[in-house]
Amino acid sequence: MTSSTQKKLFCFGLGYVGSALAAALHGEGWAVGGTCRTPEKQRTLSAAGWSVAVFDAPAVVPDLAAALEEATHVLVSIPPKPEIGDVVRHHFHDALESARQVEWIGYLSTTGVYGDHDGNWVDETTPLMPKFPHQQRRAEAERAWMRLAYSASSPVHLFRLAGIYGPGRNPFVKIQNGTAQRIDKPGLMFGRVHVDDVVQVLQASIARPHAGRVYNVVDNIPASPREVIQHACDLLQVKPPRLVAFEDAELSEMGKSFYLTNKRVDNHRIKSELGVKLRYPGYRAGLDALFADFK
């Protein structure tokens, strides 16, 4: 049990971002709990002192009523599924509605919900134009969470994340394992953000909550994916992968969506409202810092 004054984070989906936030808050004395998809990962996360349940809908759906009743803050980082949409609201809507101690709910979405804007700037007021099914599911999940916010005075905040990179998940890893690609699509601009800055934004929102608010979580410098790979190769002093025309690249639907939704994403709101000063304002700063520790 948590004490009456201790903060407790419950994270639906202790993946890359969820685990990073949980680790940061746990280091500040918070109690941490959440879900993961496998017993193996449950054992690993539990060893860190976290209270973790396996949640892999529809096969495994735990009883989380007691955990949510104790939670003061809830992060949702599980993407919606084709067959049922947002799995957290589908299975735990009632438990969340009755969780009276919850002060803050964060839902992690994606800047993909904006769709294609021919490289023009978008901000949080731009109408959504999701183009691909997974983007459409995200947009619907956003609407569902916002309906909860306005109908129940629930403290929901939406965070639209750009491409996330950081330790263990970056171009150096792809270059090393041979999966890096340089795809040529003239004019394409894409946003990204270091995981440390995602955590910083989430912590800033927790400290300064604004229920019902939407935030773009992205760095200052949109850039083409090919130039990011080129910079990483320059740092490693290796020859970059050959340039492949977009039309000839073998990409999944998810991969294609990055190349067919061209936009620059404005991040002014996280600075003006949350007081965030990005540690890594552009991909060069982020990759340079990662390279210093890369082995």
Molecular structure report:
This protein is α/β, with parallel strands linked by helices. The protein has a domain at 8-164 and 195-218 and 265-278: NAD(P)-binding Rossmann-like Domain (Rossmann fold, 3-Layer(aba) Sandwich). The protein has eleven helices and 13 strands. Strands 3-2-1-4-5-7-11 form a seven-stranded parallel beta sheet, sandwiched between helices. Strand 4 (73-76), helix 4 (87-97) and strand 5 form a beta-alpha-beta unit. Helix 1 (16-26) crosses helix 7. The longest helix is centred in the middle third of the chain and has 20 residues, at 133-152. It is globular, with a radius of gyration of 19 Å. The termini are far apart. The model has no long low-confidence stretch (mean pLDDT 93).
List keywords for this structure.
18% strand; two-stranded parallel sheet; 11 helices; 7-stranded parallel β-sheet; 295 residues; alpha/beta; Rossmann fold; globular
In brief:
The chain has helices at 16-26, 39-46, 65-70, 87-97, 133-152, 171-177, 195-207, 225-236, 253-259, 268-272, 283-293, and strands at residues 8-12, 31-36, 51-54, 73-76, 104-110, 121-122, 156-161, 163-165, 182-184, 192-194, 214-217, 243-245, 264-265.
CATH class wording of the domain at 8-164 and 195-218 and 265-278:
Alpha Beta
Provide the helix percentage: 25-40%
Strand content: 15-25%
Helix/strand-derived category reads alpha/beta
Architecture of the domain at 8-164 and 195-218 and 265-278, CATH level 2? 3-Layer(aba) Sandwich
- SS field, number of helical segments: 11
Q: Please identify the oligomeric state.
A: single chain
Low-confidence sequence ranges:
none
The fold-level CATH name of the domain at 8-164 and 195-218 and 265-278 is: Rossmann fold
Alpha-carbon distance between the two ends: 41 Å
The outline comes out as globular
Strand order of the largest sheet: 3-2-1-4-5-7-11
Q: How many strand units? A: 13
Biggest sheet, open or closed, and with what strands and sense?
A: 7 strands, parallel
> Radius of gyration over alpha carbons?
19 Å
The run of helices and strands is EHEHEHEHEEHEEHEEHEHEHEHH
